Amino acid sequence: MNERFEEQTTIFISIVKWIVLAVIIGILVGLSTTLFLKILGWTAGYTAHYPYYYLAMPVTFVVCTLLINYLAPQSKGHGTEKVIEAVHKRSGRVQVSVIPIKLFTTIITIASGGSVGKEGPSGQIGAGLASLFSDIFRLTDADRRKLVICGISAGFAAVFGTPISGAIFGLEVLYVGAIMYDVMLPSFISGIIAYQICVSFGITYFHSHLTFIPVFSNSFFLIVVLGGIFFGSVSFLFIESFRLVEDLVAKWNVNEYLRNLMGGLALVALIFLLSDKYAGLGVGTIERQLNGQEYAFWYDFLFKMLFTIITLSFGGSGGVVTPMFFIGVTAGSFFAQILHVDNATFAAIGMVSLLSGAANTPIAASIMGLELFGPVVAPYAAISCVIAFLMTGHRSIYPSQILSMKKAASVNVNVGNEMHDIETSVNSKARWRLYRPWKFFK
């Protein structure tokens, strides 16, 4: 009897402890994200008044690389990836210098036209604050790791105004096919608190509960399945293209700062040739697609991929999820036009499906579909998200994720390794059984 009482008492104390810590982290991340978003909004609005604001991009890339190399090497790249790496390899330890450097380099990258997102910096800044808090109060490595995960969740929730999917994203993005249930409570609390802090300081979010009501039928269900396959293929293309360009840039025997200049100049040239539609966050395009006010061209999602890959491979700083949203809504609009279905509905489904496929986060993406677009479209979005997740295969936009499952029984894969170390091969006998399903019934 005493042992049971002690167990319940210990669990109660643990719950209280993590509620308190999660509230603190939620407040810190909410305040830092509010500051980040307000500065970002002001600088992007200011530079937008100048017609050739993007001419500063080559210099911006050089400045970002200089600051990151000398002051905060951990802030390199697209934010979330470095936090995942810190959780797996350094018990969540994040350099304090990451906080101001990541904030500043992301702001100047977006303000000058770099195609990056705002979620990675928020997650990385949140993780940095959580790590700093853990050091100040001398928390254990295990507790620091949990708090840093809460920082990721809170940052994602606060940036996109999706507290539940934001919390799940922080848990799901670390492992492909596994969720850390022991961090679920503080992640939910920190995400909700951070979101409420941002709202209280006037941060607004885009939510579009779609008015189109899909009538369930065999044909519509088939279209959703085809959409999932298409969006998974787009995710595959994005990840593989990103990896290819990063590998080529790394092997390019040219001074790093010269590469920055050349990458920036390439983007400036592309903007002159095409449009500045693919530069910056692209939030306006995302909202118009979701509202049904604009239809995408077949090449929109491909050019956004190109702009994002060049920006992040040649010195730009920022996240990758907002560009994935752009790619998803434009790919969804293109898909809808081909099959003559509702544009806004499939732009919404494409948006969350790209997140699911590229980041390997089908649960967070499905819940985001519910939070952003309402319960009518959510079931179809969930189906598409899971198919896109499977179609992407054993690869990720976050190569430090750890693989915890095989996506197909007939594929041999080294489960337990980071995604960039994954090697796959196909079991020919198992694959042959897929082609001859009647064998299973004999």
Q: CATH homologous superfamily name of the largest domain?
A: Clc chloride channel
CATH topology of the largest domain: Clc chloride channel
Distance between the termini: 54 Å
Strand order of the largest sheet: 1-2
As a percent range, the share of strand residues is under 5%
Please give the domain count.
3
Sheet with the most strands, sense and barrel status: 2 strands, parallel
Secondary structure category: mainly alpha
Radius of gyration: 22 Å
Which architecture of the largest domain per CATH? Orthogonal Bundle
Give the oligomer, counting copies of the same chain as homo and different chains as hetero.
single chain
Average pLDDT for all residues: 88
Helix share bin: 55-70%
Order of helices and strands: HHHHHHHEHHHHHHHHHEEEH
- The top-level CATH class of the largest domain is Mainly Alpha
Unreliable stretches, pLDDT < 50, 5 or more residues?
A: none
The count of helical stretches stands at: 17
How many strand elements?
4
Shape: globular
Question: Short summary of the structure?
Answer:
This protein is mostly helical and 442 residues long. Helix content is 67%, strand content 2%. The chain has helices at residues 2-47, 57-71, 80-89, 98-111, 119-136, 141-160, 163-172, 184-200, 218-251, 256-273, 283-290, 300-313, 321-339, 343-359, 362-373, 378-391, 428-435; strands spanning 175-176, 402-403, 411-413, 424-426.
